[in-house]
Amino acid sequence: MRDCFQVYGLTCGHAANPLAIEPEAVSFGWKARHTLPGRLQKSYRIQVFHNSGKNSPVWDSGVVLSRASYGIPYQGPELLEGGDYQWTVTVEDDQGALAQSRPAFFSIGITRWEGSWLAGANYMAGDTAPLFRKEFSAPGDLVSAKLYLAAVGYAEVTLNGRRVSGRVLEPGWTDFRKTVLYSAYDIFELLRAGENAVGVMMGSGWYSNGNLCYDTASMGGQFLLQLVMVRTNGERITVFSGPHQGWLTTSKGPVRRESVYHGEAYDARMEKPGWDQPGYLPEKKDGWEEPLWAEPPEGRLRPQVMEPIRVRRTLDPVEIYQTGPDEYVFDFGQNLAGWARLKVQGQRGQKIELKFAENVYPDGSIDVTTTRNAQAQDEYILKGRGVEQFEPRFTYHGFRYVRLRGYPGIPGPEALKACLVCSDVAPRGQFSCGSEILNRIHQAVLWTELSNLHSIPTDCPQRDERLGWLNDMTVRAEEAVYNFDMSAFYEKWTDDILDGQGPVTGALPDVAPFFRLGRRPADPVSSSLLVVPWLVYLHTGDKKILAKCYDGMKRWEAYLERVSDQDIVRFSYFGDWAGPVTASDPESGASGSYSAVTPPDFISTWAYYLNCVLLESIARVLGKGEDVSSYHAMRRRILSRFNQKFFHADENQYAAGSQASNVCALLLGMVPSGKSDQVLANLVTDIKDRQGMHLTTGNQCTKYVMDVLTLYGHIDVAFALASQTSYPSWGYMLKNGGTTIWERWERASTGLVTECCSQSHPMNASIDAWFYKYLLGIQPDPSAPGFENILIRPRVPQNLSSASGTLETVRGPVAACWAQSGGQLSLNIEIPFNSTGDVTLETSGFCRIVHNSRIVWQKKDCFPMSQQAITLRVLPGKHSFVCERDI
Q1: Domain spans of the chain?
Q2: Mean pLDDT of the residues in the chain
Q3: Greatest CA separation found in the chain?
Q4: What element of type H or E holds 778?
Q5: Which homologous superfamily is 2-107 in?
Q6: The domain 787-885: what is its CATH number?
Q7: Which residues make Cβ contacts (< 8 Å) with residue 577, sequence separation at least 6?
Q8: C or N: which end of the chain has fewer Cβ atoms within 10 Å?
Q9: Band of the pLDDT at 866, cuts 50, 70, 90?
Q10: Mean pLDDT within 149-171
């Protein structure tokens, strides 16, 4: 029995085996697979052990009768600072079979740092990347060793000449005045008995990145390091940063210039072989001196639990062509974020330039319009010793094309590789269908989303911006949670939002982390602090993020209520941002990004209502009965005022009747009784007849058009919009060379949009959630979140032959695959262990429905004609459905 029942996929605080986690964040999750169908979890038992060698558990949950398998909080004695623990879970199924997991691990972070912050001595931010080194001794009887590093800026750590991990651009970006992240590394295998050396190379990162400099008087990045070794007898030995601790620094390292926006210059002639190894003799001519004792940043130190940034993938060029006497352009065939890896052999002192761009002009030369004020250029000076390889450490670019100058000879494809660099979030979803254009849109969405995950969800990766805009994330977040495991990433980013919330007013910022760019208060459409935690809760069942953000949610809604004019919120910066130029105000800012067809106070007031709807649901989940009643009453009050102000009963439309206006009201059920059909008819007429099957919506409401059309029975119209290839549409982007989703519906070369024309902008990637939710039909059940129960209701367009995909849930993979042919529709699904599924199938046009060879519905006189669908509850395992059409 054990062989067919396995527990796997253990997580602690959304992460697998975290090396540093706060005690209050310790919670447990697991998955199980069962070869026998129909099995559910009956109980679980968690045991936590200290890695001290003692056999008795620190905490034993006992046998808990529950189907819960994610977000189970630790409820034992206080966990030791810096302590290492292992844990197991034993699961019993509803037939009495038992399965025990293999041990998983977690370590508690540290709050007591023995050292102090260090900075370079002769260093100007962005000019050079200073080197720091220290030698120390290690005994030969170690049982564990960890290195903790906090930094403002980026830091690369080496031990005995080897990097301690494959992480890059570390640690993640925060508002350093509120929060500073530290990383933990297991360095046990890198240590030697006897002499060792630790090296740190610092980059300015986001701490002193030009117009985002947190301290104009700062000396660039600075760091705090603590290395903890534990001997077999339990003795702890620490090595730490601080003055008079044997640390040395120099500003004469090989990185001569570095900036997130502008790129990196590396002079290989200035490399110092062995500088981070024991026995190296620092020479005064190389600038080695004691580092400066630096003022600590204001932010609270917290461990980084979210996924690190890594090089995720490399691409070879698809074309190389010459554009000048000493100039070549590499086309990698795909827009991405990261850098180019250079491989070269040449004379000492020869300089090579790499310039990055998303587009090229008709003559093949690179077009840097979309990088705006970011220079996006790396430089490498050869040392002249055999084959040399270079990739930057403290910058990244958004690009498809690289212009190469100064390369000795004619470069071949081995000269440059493109590296996709982003947060290492695990993939969750897979989708494909019978439409080539939809498959291409899906792939473009994946590249766009990954290219904009860099410890925060950026809006773009190429220009001098790259910020976590809340208005974008309000609609983008659902696409991301279907495609990737965003739980830990979103936990961190909601902390960034809370850090930026006004302490007096409760107003949210436009961007998180919040500093200099963006405004506070945010545009009212910025509902991310509510939408993102709600999505995490639906997809994991973990209430922790709701509880953490709840007060902040309430304060934002209270702010909007206070500044409203009798529940009409009149201020707006963005509204339904960046719609087609044909529906935008050409005289407005940001290249005419403001809607000319949807009033800003309409969108702002609608978002105020959306918040109230979410708060009522969240309060119910958290058991806050008084708040449930309060927000229910508030919602009814706002709705009344909203319809009084914006609904035109004689015309059956909202505001001026734009697609966005009518869609918003339909989505949240705001239309007065008996009027929904007419408002819907106006929406469909506008899309099909007035706009010729095109959208007039911007970043907020495009997502909702697809949802509303589907929910109200117009899947064929939604599919026609999704597969459209003429302007404006997603297909138009791809037809015009796009491999990622654009910021605007127009090409970057269109004069009107040159200020805001990123070619990799995930806000319009929101369509991808529609692929999973409606074409595949996979959704979490709000009444049984975390996929305890799975809602499966595929919508089948007439002109789409098939769709298939999987979603890796917190309980295991759920799969759905359908195809229509020869007068019937076949659907195959798979439900993971410990989940149930509600499968809803349309009955219209069918004469019978068969489930696993058994008729579960057929057209009879006893069935009312109004029955449009049937719903069947299914257990874990594989299920086959065949819907046979009328002949």
Answers
A1: 2-107, 118-303, 310-421, 429-775, 787-885
A2: 94
A3: 97
A4: strand 778-780
A5: Immunoglobulins (2.60.40.10)
A6: 2.60.420.10
A7: 471, 593, 594, 595, 698, 699, 700, 763
A8: C
A9: low
A10: 97
Average pLDDT over residues 325-349: 97
The stretch 13-19 carries a mean pLDDT of 96
CA–CA gap between residue 820 and residue 798 (Å, rounded)? 9
The contacts of residue 810 (CB under 8 Å, 6+ apart) are: 29, 31, 69, 70, 539, 540, 541, 786, 787
Name the CATH architecture for the domain at 118-303.
Sandwich (2.60)
Q: Is 377:356 a contact under the CB 8 Å cutoff?
A: yes
Q: What is the pLDDT of residue 124?
A: 56
Query: What is the percent of the chain with per-residue pLDDT over 70, rounded to a whole number?
Result: 96
Q: At the topology level of CATH, where does 429-775 sit?
A: Glycosyltransferase (1.50.10)
Answer yes or no: same fold for 118-303 and 310-421: yes
Q: Which strand (E) or helix (H) includes residue 767?
A: helix 767-770
Architecture label for domain 310-421: Sandwich (2.60)
CB atoms within 10 A of CB 75: 10
* Token pair of 779 as six digits: 């959704």
Residue 881, C-beta contacts closer than 8 angstroms, at least 6 positions apart: 826, 827, 828, 829, 839, 841, 849, 850, 851
CA 550 to CA 586: how far, in whole Å? 39
Average the pLDDT over 178-185 and give the result. Answer: 97
pLDDT of amino acid 476: 96
How confident is the model over 371-414, as pLDDT tens digits?
999 999 999 999 999 999 999 999 999 999 999 999 999 999 99
The Cα–Cα gap between 148 and 12 comes to 19
Work out the angle between the directed axes of helices 528-540 and 544-563 (0-180°, nearest 10). 150
Q: What percent of the chain has pLDDT over 90?
A: 90
Mean pLDDT value of segment 260-284? 95
Q: Are 877 and 831 in contact (CB under 8 A)?
A: yes
The answer to whether residues 464 and 752 touch, using CB atoms and an 8 Å cutoff, is no
Amino acid, single-letter form, for residue 335: N
3-state helix/strand/coil string of 60-94: ECCCEECCCCCCEECCCCCCCCCCEEEEEEEEEEC
Spatial separation of the C-alpha atoms in residues 93 and 805, rounded to whole Å: 27
Give dist(CA 358, CA 884) in Å, integer. Answer: 49
